[in-house]
Amino acid sequence: MKEINSDLIERAVSLADEHLFPNALETDRAGEVPSQQLDLLRESELYGIFSPVELGGLDASPKTQWAIIEALSGGCLTTSFVWAQHAGPSKAAAETTGPMRERWGRALATGEARGGVAFAHLNRPGAPMLLAEPDGDNWLLSGSAPFVTGWGHIDVVLTAARYEDLIIWAMIDARESESLSSKRLSLAAVDSATTAELTFTRHYVPEATVTAIETFESWAERYKTGLRANGSNPLGVAARSIRLLGSSPFEEQLVEAREHLDSATSEELPLARAVVGELCVRSAAALVAQVGGSAMTIEQQAQRLAREALFLLVQGQTIQIKKNHLQLLTNK
Ligand SMILES: Cc1cc2nc3c(=O)[nH]c(=O)nc-3n(C[C@H](O)[C@H](O)[C@H](O)COP(=O)(O)OP(=O)(O)OC[C@H]3O[C@@H](n4cnc5c(N)ncnc54)[C@H](O)[C@@H]3O)c2cc1C
């Protein structure tokens, strides 16, 4: 695995600049991501970056993945956000020794199938929102997953449910049934990424679809170090605003914020993430100010980027990132 695969990153940058960005306003308003956009990502093999070569993937290093996520997010966050959900199920299918590797591994690596995730509810304090109850060797899921992006665009959703101090991870078909219903959310940004709330009512999950069972504690530890990847979303949106602004002190601030994020330990990551979130909001706001009144028209990229910057304050936000966001945003 090359630490940095420049050809692959260049491919993502070209796709973002030549196709995603010119169509981003239309995608933002379309109500869903046009299928051609996702097909372009598949044809560019970018669905394969999260999967190993033996399954037909490209096995991109974390650094290469981060740069690709940043490039695509700066092209069209809505399209990129739907695509980025694919990482979770791709990795789960590749890492499991169970039947889900055979069922989904290759299809996800090639982009023939698309995946999403339902796990952020694990972070909520209080009683678990989605519970798994044993049913012989199988499981019954009850409760809700408040945010599942790509619903309608995806074939499978990697879902996390709690059983005592364990997390049960399962690959669930992304379609409604008597025991699985969806309610689409109406969002002020990235609405076309079709995010839904899922409700499970004793939803049957065969043992064969379970990819892993782990303790909540071990997941929480791993999650802390995984916060680097989705920092690439605000980096991408900030980079686009900064490019549109022209020469400004933001250029240096972006480089510093990226370096800070790249070198942060898991303890330093919440602050590094918040610095990027705040930079993203400030640079998008500066772009609005620079463009002037017309920035508020729906045909302007500035208003889209500003709405996306606000969304990125909460997407993937943990209690520690939130504290840092609030501190930075309330500082003069
Ligand atoms: C449009 C959109 C799409 C999304 N898509 C997906 C998706 O596809 N899949 C997915 O899994 N997630 C998805 N998410 C979830 C996303 O990652 C969450 O935004 C993130 O988890 C933060 O959510 P929250 O602010 O509601 O806080 P939560 O983590 O849900 O917590 C709720 C509240 O409790 C507080 N809190 C949290 N932990 C603690 C604690 N230990 N002690 C005290 N208080 C605490 C938080 O500050 C927060 O205010 C999506 C979110 C959005 C907005």
Describe it.
The protein is globular, with a radius of gyration of 19 Å. The protein has twelve helices and eight strands. The strands form two sheets. A four-stranded mixed sheet has the order 1-4-5-8. A four-stranded antiparallel sheet has the order 2-3-7-6, with no helix packed on it. It is 49% helix and 18% strand. It has three domains: 6-110, Orthogonal Bundle (Butyryl-Coa Dehydrogenase, subunit A, domain 1), CATH 1.10.540; 115-215, Butyryl-CoA Dehydrogenase, subunit A, domain 2 (Beta Barrel); 220-330, Butyryl-CoA Dehydrogenase, subunit A, domain 3 (Up-down Bundle). It binds flavin-adenine dinucleotide. Residues 85, 116-120, 123-125, 147-149, 187, 190, 195, 314-317, 319, 322 line the site of flavin-adenine dinucleotide. The site of flavin-adenine dinucleotide has 21 residues, from strand 1, strand 3 and helix 12.
Mean pLDDT across the residues is 97
List each distinct ligand once.
Answer: flavin-adenine dinucleotide
Give the spatial strand order of the biggest sheet. Answer: 1-4-5-8
What portion of residues is helical?
A: 40-55%
Distance between the termini: 44 Å
Oligomer: single chain
Relevant CATH superfamily of the largest domain? Butyryl-CoA Dehydrogenase, subunit A, domain 3
CATH topology of the largest domain: Butyryl-CoA Dehydrogenase, subunit A, domain 3
Classify the secondary structure makeup into a structural class: alpha+beta
Largest sheet: 4 strands, mixed
Give the tally of structural domains: 3
Shape: globular
Uncertain residue segments: none
CATH architecture tag of the largest domain: Up-down Bundle
- Relative strand content: 15-25%
How large is the count of helical segments? 12
